[in-house]
User: Fold Lactoylglutathione lyase from Aliikangiella marina.
Amino acid sequence: MRIDDIRVFIPAKDYPQSQAFYQSLGFNMEYVSEALSLFDNGDCYFFLQRFYNQALAENLVLQISVIDIDEAWQKIIQLEGFDIRYQPIKQERWGKVIYLWGPSGELLQLTEFKQ
Assistant:
């Protein structure tokens, strides 16, 4: 079996707020249905669903590889109006990372890998 793509489905506690949050991070949104939106940035995609399960959301971790962690940090600190939390850039053995919890409790690890 050969795989050419994997797309995660992210639950949304407040669907419109989560849609706005991911658009503010720089993702493009495409309407799929009343309960599903497709987001993309470059060749990377994920679905946002109008479905919420607290245990699922709070245990969901996505690693998002970024080219420039400082650019990502500037975007994050300018976000307003969202129920989110984040930690500043941290050096890990694999590179630099920002831990960002989205509006539904999902954890995004924005990572700039070591070259």
Summary: The CA atoms of residues 63 and 109 lie 5 Å apart. The two ends are 30 Å apart (CA to CA).
